[in-house]
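Lab manual, section 2.4: Encoding a predicted structure.

Procedure: take the sequence of the chain (346 residues), apply the prediction step described in section 2.3, and record the output as structure tokens. A sample record is shown.
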Amino acid sequence: MILVTGGAGFIGSHVVDALIAEGSEVRVLDSLLAHSARPAYIAREADFIEGDIRDPTTVARALDGVEHVSHQAGMVGLGSDFLDIADYVSHNDTGTAVLFRALAASGFKGRLVLASSMVVYGEGRYACAEHSVVRPALRRVEDLEAGRFEPGCPHCGRELEAQPIPEDAELDPRNVYAATKLHQEHLAAALEREAGVPVTALRYHNVYGPRMPRDTPYAGVASLFASALAAGEAPRVFEDGAQRRDFVHVRDVAIANVAALTSREPVTGALNVASGWPRSVGEMADALADAAGPDAPRPLVTGQYRLGDVRHVFASPERARELLGFRAGEDFAQGMRELARAELHT
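Recorded output:
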């Protein structure tokens, strides 16, 4: 039996499907906080428990007879503002702590896969022609207001070259959500050291695909754009649209989870889960609008910004390929067509 926390959610439900397709017995623990009822897409074969991961009694029940855990539960996205901090810490950090305490107390010796995120990196990897790899300073409000979005070298101010970021890069979370994801990784490392539980932290990059949540402050950029197009509105692209991300399909993310849970030997540490093909946010918005049809409104580049955002973050997927044999296989254009047709969920 494999437990998937947050298994009713966007990513978690695809992990459930992929595990069942591989022949695994699956149990889902989900509070349905983001749903008005149990979603129809949850596989009937899954043993479903509705409950809060912060409740020790519920967690103990969910872990009964479980061999491995895929921990997907938590709040996602940037949120509305800093006042969301207590909710993020409660769901992401306290919920994870309650789960890990239960694992340690029960003598759990199976594998744990942690849903981490590329947000732990903060800004991506940059190189200066003179100073090699450098860490840009925090972007200044005056620069953003003036439309100067590219970070410069902290030593000489020169324009930087963005590069794929590896797992051993310096970690620098730059918003509340990012801080909670890094704290989850730290808690997982402590669990591994002190309780002997092998942990694989999968750092998801920008995940998209069917079952994405509707337009909310907590949704990802692909979901926000898809929600706008479904409402007949132009997707609003922040900054100049040239900021680059790695958009990885949710089915590929699910495959990475299955690989981490079922590989011959546990693979510990952090792994980027990415397509390996960086694209700009503007390019993604255009592809989604194209997929929505000739009458769909074109994306609107607004020049607006969010202080919690970073400029370029895209990954090297080589470690996941080498250690797990994972390679993203979903086609981007086809994925955009699928997303344009997909029903978005509450």
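Check your result against the sample. The radius of gyration is 20 Å.
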